[in-house]
UniProtKB/TrEMBL annotation:
Cytoplasm as UniProt keyword: no
Organism phylogeny: Eukaryota, Viridiplantae, Streptophyta, Embryophyta, Tracheophyta
Protein name: Glycosyltransferase
Family under the similarity heading: Belongs to the UDP-glycosyltransferase family.
Superkingdom of origin: Eukaryota
Organism of this sequence: Nicotiana tabacum (Common tobacco)
Amino acid sequence: MEGKKSTISVLMLPWLAHGHISPFLELATKLANRNLHIYMCSTPVNLNSVKKRVAGMYSRSIELVELHLPSFPDLPPHYHTTKGLPTHLISTLNKAFEMSTPFFFKILQTLNPDLVIYDFNLPWAADCASSVNIPAVQFLTFSAAVIALGIHMYDKPGEMFPFPEIYLHEYEMLIIKKALDQLPGKKFPFDEALRRSRDIILVKTCRDIEGKYMDYLSSLVSKKVVPVGALVQESIDQDGHEEITQWLDKKDKGSTVFVSFGSEYFLSKDKIHVVAQGLELSKVNFIWVIRFPQGERISTQDALPEGFLERVGERGMILEGWAPQAKILQHSSVGGFVSHCGWNSLMESMKFGVPIIAMPMQVDQPMNARLVEYIGIGMEAMRDENGNLQSEEIAKVIRKVVVDEIGEVVRKNARELSEKMNAKGDEEIDGVVEELVALCNNK
């Protein structure tokens, strides 16, 4: 007979996007630090990108487990990730992921973990786990407000959301309705996976920021909502990137904005021009990460307005493809973050006390932007009635947040929230561990 395991083992299965794998991996390191053994399960192409992160001190406590997806002619293994994936193949990837259920089942039988932690759109993972008597818990990498609004709209159509500060403009609502209409069976993606979570739901948030939305979400789904905290990587690699650091060192304290729209959203040439004109008009220093879709051959110089780089001179730095975001946000010269309002980016900004110039682009980002304004740590650059970006508005909001006296309250709020979050440390994670251990002991 097998002896009782002294260490709880957890198998984690995130969605195949970097914006999901990253918080899952950060949660894995926090749990591993508290003596839980973690199996991080994903496709080989995704695991290759995180191998360095789990080398060294986590090489024994976090094991990478390959999940092989069935092959499709138009979905070779290097496309088993959303990074660089052509948009028209997203539904194919989702289908292939779901078709990997038998492989996932074999992994569960082989490893026999005590618990499975799965992502927002993977009800089949919870079904696999429950079929072999393994409790499964959902981990949501979105804000509690966004999830609560989505479920409210789905479960209570026509009824006002009880928190009017979180809303959508008409043009944003049309985009979301179009996306929902394209879902299989028009089912809300959170619903099935949420219902299968055993007793609790883990959410990447903090009670200080989203307490009332967590409580409302809990009442909607009849499960305890457990915050896991900001999950911002603590040990920032200080090696390399000297050119960026040296450039920032020459700027006055709080005088520079960092501009980034996430790792998987790409601005069109027209939008690049509008943002560029806004930065130029603001007369504020900026460091801007510009990304292009994989395989799109275009130089940054060609994408920007003619003469832009010459006109801004030493006031601006352009980076192509990738930047050490956390390292930049922690630099004393950075006084604002022009952000698409992806939840991971917002959590980093909050943790480091950098106020936000909100420019939401898609999915949950508009609701995140409203939350940022409501809690007073940023301002949104408003679009016109058709949803188009406006250069003058971008410039105005950058100056308000970073330079003008009117923005001092926002800057102060951002500093105070950062101090509060940092003072709490990992209190949330300790609570998460208690909940997970209790679940495993009661299965």
